[in-house]
C-alpha cells in the first residue's frame, strides 16, 4: 500500500500560522484606495407597509448615494431555495431587520450620520409571531400566499392500529427556541470593479458559488461578470449561507465605480443573518411491556420567520430524524415550515437534526420510567443496528456502532 | 473635532500622534496604523477579540479611548515575536479554528504567563475568561496554554 502522507496523521491547520500572527485577512481588514463606506437602514417594525424618503440624507456633504429597491439594476430578490427575500424592501417589511436602504458615503462617520436623515414611514399591519397561529386560515399573511409553505410526511405501517396494541403510550409537547450562531466575526465585505469591469465581492461566506449567481441576478449581468472571493471566515456555523452584505456592496460598487466597504456591528449581525429554527414538537410514542417501541406519531412545526431560507431541508431532516436512532415499525410524521414575522431561520449546525432529540430522547426516558426499565435498557432494546430499517425505508448497511456506544455508557 | 497629541509606544516603536478625542484605541490600531490583527467582535467589552496589552495588563481596546493610551506601552499581536512558544502551542494543539478570537487569546495567555509560569487549569481558564471563542470549545486553547507554560519552564510540553 502506498504510504499516506496526510490521512491518519495529525497535521497542523494550514492557515493557523497566519491566524496566530494576526496576519490572516478577514474582510474588515481590507482597506483600499478611494474606498467608500456603506451602512444599512433596516426596518424597526415586524410587519408594515413602508414609504421611504432618502432625499435629505442624499444631500449631506460626503454622501455619495442612498440605494433603495429602485436602484437594483436586476431582480430585487434573493434566497437560497425560494427567492422570497428582497434586496431592499419595496412595499412592505416582514420582520425587524429587513434591509430598506444602503447609504454610501466617503467615510463611515458620514454614512452613520446620514442615517438620521432617512425617513421611513411605517403603516403597521397585523403581524403573526406564533407559527401555529400562522397556520390558521384567517391569520395575517407574511407573503402573498399561505404561511405554510412546506409539509413533509412520513407514513409507515399503521400507527392507529399499533397504538391499540401498546402497553404504554407517552404523549408530550416539546418546544425549542431560536438560537443565533453568534460567530465571532461580524459580517463585513468589500466590493470593487476589476480591470476587466467585473464586480469583485470579497465577503466571508459559506457559498461563494451561490452568492455569485444571486449577485449576478440582482445586477442583471452574466455570472461571468461577478467574482466572489472568500478570505478568512470568522466562524459561520450555517449563519453565512444566506446573502447579507454581498448584493448591497455589488450594486454600490458597480454604480459608483469605486470600492465600497461595509462592516456590521454585533447588533446588526444579529438582525442580518438567520437563526436556528424554533420548533414545537408534538410526540406520541408507544411501546410494548418489554420496552419494544411499536409506534410513533409526531407533528413538528418549524418557525421559519419571515423567509424560507433552508426551511424545507431543515424540516425534512427533522422529520427523517424524528424516530431518533431507534427502530419503530409504525410511524406517522408531519413536519411543517411556516412563515411568521419573526427573524428568519435557516441553517445551523445539524440542520434540523438538532432539535428533535430534545423530544425523542425525553420520550425514551419517560417510557423507560413507566415500564420500570433503565434508560440504557430501553435504548439497547430499540437502537439501530446493522441492517435496521429507518422510518423512511433506508436499510443501514456497514458500520452502525450505536449498541457498542450505549454499552460503554453502562460504566458511568 | 478636538485633537489630542499623544505619545505612545506600540510594539516597541514610538509614535507621536494627533488623535480625535472620541477615537477608540481599536480604531487607532486598525484604521490608522493598519494593525489589523486586533479584531472587533462586539465593540462593547464582551468578547475580548480586541484584546491588547497596555502597560503590562490586558485591556479591551474597544473600551479604551486612544488618548487614554498616552505615555503607555502597547503590545498587539503583531508585536509578538515570530517563533513564540504560545503561538506555536496554539497551532500544535489545534487551538485555532476560525482564528478571529486567536490574537486576543494569545495575548491573554501571554499576559498570564508573563506573571505566572506555573498556572493551574483554573488560573488559565480565569485568564482567558474575558475572551470568547465560538469555535473550539476552549479545551484545546487551555491545553495550548498549558503546553506553552511547560515549554517556557523548560519542559518538553508533553
Ligand atoms: S470587540 Fe472589544 S470586547 Fe469585543
Ligand atoms: S477560533 Fe473561532 S472564535 Fe475562536
Automatic annotation (TrEMBL), chain A:
Its EC number is 1.17.1.4. Keywords: Oxidoreductase. Transmembrane segments: none annotated. One of its GO terms (molecular function) is iron ion binding. InterPro entries: Ald_Oxase/Xan_DH_a/b, Ald_Oxase/Xan_DH_a/b_sf, Ald_Oxase/xanthine_DH-like, AldOxase/xan_DH_MoCoBD1, AldOxase/xan_DH_Mopterin-bd_sf. SMART domains: Ald_Xan_dh_C (SM01008). This is Xanthine dehydrogenase, molybdenum binding subunit. The keyword DNA-binding does not apply.
